[in-house]
What we know:
This protein is elongated. The chain has helices at about 35-50, 55-70, 75-80, 80-90, 95-100, 105-110, 115-130, 135-155, 155-170, 170-195, 205-220, 225-230, 235-265, 280-300, 305-310, 315, 325-355, 355-360, 365-375, 380-400, 405-425, and strands spanning about 1-5, 15-20, 20-25. By secondary structure, it is mostly helical. The protein is about 70% helix and about 5% strand.
Amino acid sequence: MKLIYNRYFPFGKFFATNIFGIVFCRSDKGRLSETDVNHEYIHTLQQREMLFLGFTLWYVVEWLWRYARCRNFMKAYHDLYFEREAYKMESDLEYRQHRRHFEWWYMFVRRGTLLHELGMFIGDLVAFVKKDFLWSKYLYALLLVTLVIVGQVAFNVYGILIEPSYDDGTSMLFIPIVYISMYFLVLVPTLAMHGELWRLRYWQVWLFPVVLLTIDGAGQGFYGYMQWAEALGTYAKDRLYLQLVGSFLFRSVFIVLMLCLFRKLTEGQFGLYGLKRSGKYLRVYALIYLMLLPLFLWTSFTPQFLDYYPKMNIAFFDGALGWERWQLIGLFEVCYANDFLGVESMFRGAMIIGLARWLGCRAVLPMALTYMCIHLGKPDLELCSSVLGGYILGILAWRTRHLWGGIIIHLGIAMFFEAVGILRLLL
């Protein structure tokens, strides 16, 4: 921690302020005492454990909330959790030696409250990043992500490389190769950067991702349902509707086969891959989803999303199979939702919870970049957000050993876009 004395900052009655571990002190108000230095050092520890920006965001939001309640600037300041810890423990000059991470949280936030759960949620994210972070590793991952996104946005890699494979019948082979290549292109170099190449001695680290991604990619590349729809559909509209339903239904079948095989290979050690009874962070996931709804609403009216959603274009499929609208929408949305359950079980379940036994937290980043690849061909904003979203959901699956967060947020987003798109067509 560095002290910088000056005559102007901080303003007003304050003697010192700590910004990212640098303490600015008013020289015209004297020198900091040992107690004052200890107070600021406690703030530095708080900032470090919240990765500085998290501390700043929390500090500002909490102060605004408290000020709105009491309408008193200094009372709101003294009531802040960060300040309460610092003032309470500033006289204990040995405190920094034995302080627990997030001690301010344990001291003042009541257990069982949503605020307490939110703090533990943030703590889990921060703890993971500290455990897994390596500059070279994340810069390398950022380079790969940039290459993929630029390639798709600027050159339409999906349309040039992947889409033609559906026409020539090689999609069931080509798509798994893309997924497997990305996975090991991330896994092997990042393990080397951590000095953990010894993990590659486990045959499971090689076999399971190859098997999982082969079956998942083959499911995405499978087009046999096209011929079945042609045989079953009386009219063109019927056939197209059956093909649309089949595109999600049969990928789910492949995922079920994959998970059954994985369960057999691992002798059932991982249960239902995270689909277990657990309420950890469910309220936080719901809160995050509600907070993001305005962003989803705005996004749903952007040109790319208007072209891509809803998947179930009721204006086109109206009357297919001689069914009512609610029947057509209901069947499709059930198959569509089932596909998302399968994706979560695959990427956050089998590839995180399942492989954690051999890869530990190193399983998350390769999964996140591979997960990005399944979004090629989708709207650019969805492709970009899939990296961060997949990474965060992967961290939470690894920490909590359940998938309900991913299901709530991922499925909730998809159903929201579908609902907005269908309402826009019907109204």
